[in-house]
Automatic annotation (TrEMBL):
GO terms for molecular function: ABC-type oligopeptide transporter activity; ATP binding; ATP hydrolysis activity. This is ABC transporter ATP-binding protein. Residues 121-143, 726-747 are annotated as: Disordered. Residues 736-747 have a biased composition (Low complexity). The chain crosses the membrane at residues 164-186, 206-227, 310-328, 393-416, 422-439. It comes from the Bacteria. Residues 165-453 form the ABC transmembrane type-1 domain. SMART domains: AAA (SM00382). Keywords: ATP-binding, Cell membrane, Membrane, Nucleotide-binding, Transmembrane, Transmembrane helix, Transport. It comes from Ramlibacter rhizophilus. PANTHER family: ATP-BINDING CASSETTE SUB-FAMILY B MEMBER 10, MITOCHONDRIAL (PTHR43394:SF1), ATP-DEPENDENT PERMEASE MDL1, MITOCHONDRIAL (PTHR43394).
Length: 747
């Protein structure tokens, strides 16, 4: 049963507040979803919201709701780049929404929450913050961060357990040394100062002995504290460095689909700032916390040994402080998780804008990018302000409670002195001890903040380490001795999520054969070469090289035999020689030069200021597109691959540059199994066979002339491109020769 509620305002900046105003008492929003296509298949924003009781949807100025009932399901699918989300009960379809695939991940999350709710295990409702907005308590995987995640750092601490044991011993000894001076104040007061004030003589030797004890304990505490801090700081830096290295190495081994769902700035923030935060926690705050606990326990033991009744009064503020710590911990945890996410947004804006600064300036979008950064920075500021509001109340309240506790101890202690149950020296020592006691108690309460901050950072690091690559290594890899380059694709199928990209594909490629892949954009050409490179694993069927399934090879071992030349070659910051030798860092200068000559890059490299030692700017800045491409070809030549992948290698350069690159490619393909994708069909006429793809399937296979004679799918592609070139006044595509003409050279 559905009902419609007129909407006062469309969901937008104030949409969440408009939705909250329509909720019943104790009803919480569990999940929200933005859909962006209306029933007329036009771009139109809409919203869905899921509560414990109902599903609400906003469209064209009206709220519509469906009370949740048994048997109600959400079903999602996609076709042709448009996704659909259906709400059904046991009898009929209740509603239908459409969305672009940019919303696909959000839809999957929304459906998962709906299914958990229907199964009787709903996700916890977000807690409302002071501003009336919903805080997202869950991390990337939907689970709230626990402080116990810090215990997982133990695997990184294990190699340094000896140093940690020594550090703990030093901490125990230095803490004990700091507790000696207050105990010496008892004889100083009762046997020296008070008798001297009453006119009695004092023993100078005894006074000097007490003062020497105070000096010795201070020097001992200083030296032990220095050694402890230095040792544990070294260990914590090494633990953080190991964590950073392990996270980066694991990140490099993940498949490409992981990077497709993550933003560069967020990953940089995780491996950079999060590990720094953990290092600071381990080197400073964890050490302080251990010292605080030891000081707290040892001071409490001394206080009870001196006077149990006064010690009990000293502990009065402790239950209230413990309750406050428990109450504020969850708010701090969710706050720091939110800060981590919005800071990832800030760094992502930088990671997007700085590498693309040429495009930003070319389209005069400096103001827009500045506004993007300002908005991300403001969101970061808002989250920090809300967290600081909580912390600013918590910390002074703890200080107030400790001050009140000190006042009570003074009052009770004076009453005991007046009844001659304790001496002034005992009260003085008590006051000195509880000064340390309450200071440590206040410090322990403050550690809640940094602990939750470190736990949030550790969780984000372990989110990377816990992610399993979709391209796993075989348990017992087959060793590659020498590849011939025969490739067999058998019943190949591949899906991105629930979207089928390649289906039922069969193809055999002979060793040393050059295959050209052609087809409309989106036909699956690039996906196919990605599967051959094993950037992804097939969903169905198998890819065999020399008769062996490539999933039985070690990933790195297999890829060493593949040369890849991309449409947009990526060059690293470094010298020209280092970029050419990237696949073979141990290559000699003579081998590098030989590869550059074969790639027709030697001449322009010599024209650079320092030749092969000239620095290449980030992403190849300072070189033309053709020059970057020829360096990329030289890089592929140097590793001498048996299988060569050319993905639109000449599509982004002019005709003259293409001729130079084509000469380099002619050298590159000799004797190698080659799979080439090209935007200009004329560049593939040298291929032994052309494989024509459409909607993830192979529709035609054969040499250029044969396919032209058939006047099928390839012929229509070729004719359409020829007409476009003629209309543009170009000479790139030549009309085909008659079907009986001689075969072009190289076929």
């Amino acid at each position: 049963m559905q009902s419609t509620i007129p909407a006062a305002a469309a969901p937008g900046p104030d949409g969440r507040h408009a939705l909250q105003s329509r909720l019943n008492k104790n009803e919480n929003v569990l999940a929200t979803l933005e859909v962006d296509i209306d029933a007329a298949m036009q771009f139109q924003p809409g919203s869905l919201a899921l509560t414990e009781r109902r599903l609400l949807a906003w469209d064209k100025g009206r709220w519509t709701e469906w009370p949740l009932a048994a048997g109600m399901v959400l079903r999602h699918a996609d076709h042709g780049g448009i996704g659909t989300l259906e709400l059904l009960d046991s009898r009929e379809r209740l509603a239908l929404w459409r969305f672009t695939l940019a919303q696909h991940a959000a839809v999957l999350s929304f459906v998962a929450r709906f299914e958990r709710l229907q199964a009787g295990t709903p996700a916890p409702a977000p807690a409302a913050n002071d501003e009336g907005e919903d805080e997202d308590e869950a991390d990337d995987d939907g689970r709230p961060t626990s402080t116990w995640v810090l215990l997982r750092l133990g695997r990184f601490a294990r190699p340094y357990r000896r140093q940690l044991a020594i550090g703990f011993g030093l901490t125990l000894a230095s803490t004990a040394a700091t507790l000696v001076p207050p105990y010496l104040t008892i004889p100083l007061m009762d046997q020296v100062l008070i008798p001297f004030q009453n006119g009695q003589r004092i023993d100078p030797g005894f006074v000097m002995l007490l003062l020497a004890g105070l000096l010795a304990s201070a020097l001992l505490a200083w030296s032990l504290g220095w050694a402890r801090t230095w040792l544990l700081a070294l260990v914590s830096e090494r633990i953080a460095a190991d964590l950073r290295t392990t996270a980066f190495e694991h990140l490099l081994n993940l498949s490409l689909d992981y990077f497709g769902s993550k933003r560069t700035g967020d990953l940089v923030a995780r491996i950079g700032s999060e590990t720094d935060r953990i290092s600071v926690f381990l080197s400073l705050h964890a050490l302080d916390f251990a010292t605080d606990v030891l000081m707290f326990a040892m001071t409490a033991a001394i206080l009870f040994s001196i006077d149990p009744s006064l010690a009990l009064v000293t502990l009065l503020p402790l239950p209230f402080i413990a309750w406050m710590i428990h109450a504020v911990r969850d708010r701090l945890r969710t706050g720091f998780e939110k800060i981590d996410r919005v800071w990832g947004d800030v760094t992502s804006v930088l990671a997007d804008t700085i590498p693309g600064i040429r495009v930003v300036k070319a389209f005069a979008q400096e103001r827009r990018e500045a506004q993007r950064f300002r908005e991300a920075n403001q969101a970061n500021l808002n989250v920090n302000d809300r967290l600081n509001k909580t912390w600013s109340l918590f910390s002074p309240t703890v200080s107030l409670l400790t001050d009140l506790g000190l006042l009570v101890v003074w009052a009770f202690g004076i009453w005991l002195v007046s009844r001659q149950e304790i001496t002034v020296g005992v009260l003085t020592a008590f006051i000195a001890y509880i000064g340390r006691f309450y200071t440590r108690l206040d410090s322990m309460s403050r550690i809640v903040s940094v602990t939750q901050k470190a736990a949030a950072g550790a969780k984000r690091i372990f989110d990377i380490l816990d992610h399993v690559s979709n391209v796993p290594e075989p348990a017992q890899p087959v060793k590659i001795t020498q590849l011939q380059g025969a490739i067999d694709l058998q019943g190949l199928g591949f899906r991105y999520g629930n979207r089928s990209v390649i289906r039922g594909l069969d193809l055999s490629i002979r060793p040393g054969e050059m295959i050209g892949l052609v087809g409309h954009s989106g036909s699956g050409k690039s996906t196919l070469v990605n599967l051959i490179c094993r950037f992804y694993d097939v969903s169905e069927g198998a890819i065999k090289v020399d008769g062996t399934d490539i999933r039985r090879f070690a990933v790195a071992d297999f890829r060493r035999h593949i040369g890849l030349v991309l449409q947009e070659p990526f060059l690293f910051f470094g010298t020209v020689a280092e970029n050419i030798a990237y696949g073979r860092p141990d290559a000699t200068r003579a081998e590098i030069v030989a590869a550059a000559r074969a790639a027709h890059a030697h001449e322009f490299i010599l024209r650079l200021p320092l030749g092969y030692d000239s620095m290449v700017g980030e992403r190849g800045q300072g070189l033309s597109g053709g020059e970057r491409q020829r360096i990329s070809i030289a890089r592929a030549l140097l590793i001498d691959p048996r299988i060569l992948i050319l993905d639109e290698a000449t599509s982004s350069v002019d005709t003259e540059t293409e001729k130079e690159i084509q000469k380099a490619l002619d050298n590159l393909v000799q004797g190698r199994t080659t799979i080439a994708i090209a935007h200009r069909l004329s560049t593939l006429r040298r291929a032994d066979r052309l494989v024509v793809m459409d909607r993830g399937r192979v529709v035609e296979v054969g040499p250029h002339d044969d396919l032209m004679a058939r006047q099928g799918f390839y012929w229509r592609l070729y004719e359409a491109q020829a007409r476009r070139v003629e209309e543009d006044g170009g000479e790139d595509v030549q009309r085909p020769a008659p079907a009986h003409a001689a075969h072009p050279a190289g076929q």
